[in-house]
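Batch manifest, entry 17 of 40.
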Amino acid sequence: MKKMKNYTIILVVFSTLIIGCSPYKNVPNIKSMSELNYGYEVKYAELSNDIKLAYVDEGNGSETIIFIHGLGSYIPAWKKNIDELSKNYRCIAIDLPGYGKSSKNPHSGLMSFYAKTVAEFIDKLELSKVTLAGHSMGGQISIVTALHFPDKVEKLILVDPAGFELFHPGQRLWFKDVMTPNLVRLTSVEAIETNLASNFYNMPKDAMFMIEDRIAMRTADDFENYCYTVSQSVAGMVDEPVFDKLKHIKQPTLIFFGENDNLIPNRYLNPGKTEPIARAGANEIKNSQLVMVPKCGHFMMFEKPEIFNTEVSNFLK
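Output type: C-alpha cells
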C-alpha cells in the first residue's frame, strides 16, 4: 500500500511537471465535472435510482435524434453533428450516468442498465419514437435499447459501434482484469494524449479540447466515481455481448465505420482490418446500410462530420 502511495505521488509530481511545460499549462483546476464548458445550455432529467441525467436539447423538427457517447466520453463529442443537424432535427445528446455532468452514483455498467436509463429518459421527455445515434459503447447501448424497447426506437445510427467484434471468454476476462478504476485514475498526461490520438486517423486540431477536458477532470471531486464507471462499463460491454442478437433488430439502421479504426478490432487481441468486422455485423442486421469511410479512425462523426451529417440527413429523409 505504501509503495502504491509513493508511486501515485511520483506520478502526480511528474504529470505536474509535464503540464507546466506543455500546451496544457492553462488547464483549470475544477471541483466538479459539472464545471466543464460544453458550449450549450445543459438541462437535467431526474430519473429513478437517484439518477440526474445531463442533456442538451437543440433544434426543432418532426424527427428527434438522441446522441449517446462512447466509453470515457461525453456530450461535446457530438458538437460538430449537433450544430449542423439541429438546423432540421431536434438533437438531444446525453451524458450517461457516471459521465460528464450527470450524477455519478455507482452502478453496474451493464448495457441493459444504460438501455433502461435511455428508455426512461425518452418517457421522461414524453418523446415519441426516436432515432438513437450511438458511438462506440454508445452504439452497443443503442442496439440493446432498440432490442429491449422496440416501441420507443424508430431508427438506429451506429458509429464505429462496440458489439460487432467477438471475444472469447478468456479475452473478456482480460478486459475486466486490465481496465481497473486505478488504471483510469492514474493515466498520465502523455497516455491521455496517446489514447485520444489513437481514436483518429489524423487528429484534428479542434479535438484538443477533449485532451484538455480529460486532464482537467482529474482534479474534480467526482473524478474517482467517473473512473469506477469507466471500469464497470468495460465489464458491462463484454458481459452482455450483442452480436448474436443483431439479427433481431427490426429498425432501419445506418452504420458508419472508419476504415482506419485503431480500436476495432482490438489491436492486441484480434489484430486485423476493420472492414471484415464491420461487414460481419452489418450483414446480421437485415435492414441496414454500411458506410465505410476512408482515411478515418474510430471517432468518425468528429473526424469526418460532413460525411456523417450528409448521410444521416439522407437516411432520415
